[in-house]
Design a protein that fits this description.
0% of the residues are buried. The protein starts with 11 loop residues before the first helix and ends with a helix. Helices cover 80% and strands 0% of the residues. The chain has 2 domains: 11-42; 55-83. Helix 1 crosses helix 2. It has helices spanning 12-24, 29-42, 44-83. It has 84 residues and is mainly α.
């Protein structure tokens, strides 16, 4: 299939993220962007987001407990530092 060149203006941080992620995957930026578009158009991205939302809904209490424990531990350490 013939390739078509596209031009797009994005913030530098977005461009750097695209370059880094493409390199991490061993892909060119063009191939990486093509894959993102294909995944989005095929519904793969939406299915992934929906699966993540279901997972969080099913396990939110576990995350809440872990965050509460972490906050509690940080508060205790903060109190210990002040007391010293």
């Amino acid at each position: 299939m013939a390739k078509t060149q596209l031009g797009a203006r994005v913030d530098e941080d977005v461009a750097e993220l695209a370059r880094k992620r493409a390199a991490d995957l061993g892909m060119s930026v063009g191939d990486y962007l093509a894959r993102l578009v294909q995944d989005d158009a095929s519904g793969l991205r939406a299915r992934g987001v929906e699966a993540a939302a279901r997972f969080l809904a099913d396990h939110q209490a576990v995350f809440d407990e872990a965050e509460d424990a972490q906050r509690s531990g940080e508060a205790q350490k903060s109190g210990e530092v002040r007391a010293a």
